[in-house]
From TrEMBL:
Pfam families linked: MFS_1
Name this protein carries in UniProt: MFS transporter
Gene Ontology molecular function terms on file: transmembrane transporter activity
Entries under InterPro entries matching the protein: MFS, MFS_DHA3_Transporter, MFS_dom, MFS_trans_sf
PANTHER family per UniProt: PERMEASE, MAJOR FACILITATOR SUPERFAMILY-RELATED (PTHR23530:SF1), TRANSPORT PROTEIN-RELATED (PTHR23530)
């Protein structure tokens, strides 16, 4: 707390802090989403079941895929600030269409805009921080530390908004959580107008767009130093995505009330904060391997746990470790890439991850609907097992 206070107090004299401030405030507001913790309850209330929830998760991913690489390339070539503003507007529209939805067909529009938000925001903020540090300081030695604070702030916003979302749902209606988020998303878009973008990433703007896109894919998939790192990143991405997208289905299966959805949602979304806090501990391959092993054991526990609070605890462990690993591995990947490809490269990883996630989401929803959520949860065990194999293989090649 002292370091954060000192960082703030020195902000007036520190150009780095002044430039980061709008980005950090916007991050908080974009993560202050009241409806995340009660979304599945709302979806059940307007006619969804587990299979159609899986389908909706796939639609989220499809929309993200359509925008992921174009948004990353756009951020690299045009304006990362502009892309972040577009992400805020997409969240606003997603919340608006969720607010007015009375059946699954209209909620699809909300899902589409959320997919756009996810694609536009992913990788952009971290690339903005990396280049801002390089432009202001001439080095990025404190990148992991600043990125961890950035994600911790988002995690704090998710925790508070999840609790408030559960309270709003219980005190008023499930729908009101969507309306409240329209306000915070709009504020984020306004705050981002005050951010001063970097110019370091625009060194390649003379290249043709299609060449830049090809170069972005090549920078990731044709780099032998990144081969096994990419495999582990994709696995961790899928584990985090499935844990974050479907965790509420366990609570519905256990017939938990809306208020507990809010409390549990605060705990699970808090993994963005706890994960950001511990990301610096995963600088070595041994610790990455240990984290994957703990996730593997926790995922097995979720397939047999009959307890609500034990399930929440296991989900918290998986969410915290998987998010910390995403950040740590992303940070490692940044060091292998030139600035002109950084935002786009992150988008490439997310695009491939979402392409894999689409059939997985459909299968997860089908298994949960026809068998049980516990059987569907075994998919996470398989993914983490693949991640362990890839990390062992990476170790053996060193």
């Amino acid at each position: 707390m002292y370091s954060i206070t000192l960082w703030y107090n020195n902000g007036v004299k520190n150009p780095l802090v002044r430039r980061l401030a709008p980005l950090f405030i916007a991050k908080f507001l974009l993560c202050f989403v009241f409806w995340y913790s009660i979304e599945k309850l709302f979806m059940y209330s307007i006619g969804f079941n587990d299979a159609s929830i899986g389908l909706m998760a796939a639609i989220y991913a499809v929309m993200s895929v359509f925008m992921e690489v174009p948004s990353g390339v756009l951020a690299d070539r045009w304006s990362r600030k502009g892309v972040m503003i577009l992400s805020a507007l997409s969240m606003l529209l997603s919340s608006y269409f969720g607010w007015i939805s009375n059946d699954p067909s209209l909620y699809v529009v909300s899902a589409a805009f959320w997919g756009f938000f996810d694609a536009l925001a992913s990788g952009t903020g971290s690339a903005m921080i990396y280049d801002l540090l390089k432009e202001e300081q001439g080095h990025t030695r404190n990148y992991d530390k600043i990125l961890g604070r950035f994600e911790m702030l988002g995690g704090i916003a998710l925790i508070i908004s999840a609790l408030l979302g559960g309270w709003l749902a219980s005190a008023t209606s499930l729908r009101s959580a969507f309306f409240a988020t329209i306000i915070t998303a709009g504020l984020a878009a306004v705050i981002l107008l005050f951010y001063r973008d970097t110019t370091i990433h625009k060194q390649s703007t003379d290249a043709k767009l299609i060449e830049h896109t090809k170069g972005t894919f090549a920078a990731v998939f044709k780099n032998p130093d990144l081969a096994w790192l990419v495999v582990v990143m994709l696995v961790v991405f899928l584990v985090q995505k499935m844990n974050g997208e479907f965790y509420q289905l366990w609570y519905a299966a256990l017939s938990m009330p809306a208020a507990l959805f809010g409390i549990a949602g605060a705990i699970i979304t808090g993994t963005y904060s706890s994960g950001g806090a511990i990301v610096r501990f995963f600088a070595t391959r041994r610790r990455v391997l240990l984290a994957l092993a703990v996730c593997f054991i926790s995922a097995i526990g979720m397939t047999i746990s009959p307890s609500f609070w034990l399930t929440v605890g296991l989900q918290f462990v998986i969410g915290t470790l998987s998010f910390a690993l995403v950040l740590a591995l992303t940070s490692k990947m940044q060091h292998y890439l030139p600035s002109k490809y950084r935002a786009g490269a992150g988008s490439v990883i997310n695009t491939v991850g979402r392409l894999i996630f689409i059939p997985c989401a459909l299968l997860f929803g089908f298994l949960s609907n026809t068998m049980s959520i516990f059987v569907a949860g075994s998919m996470t065990v398989v993914f983490i097992g693949i991640g362990l194999f890839a990390e062992f293989h990476a170790r053996s090649e060193k």
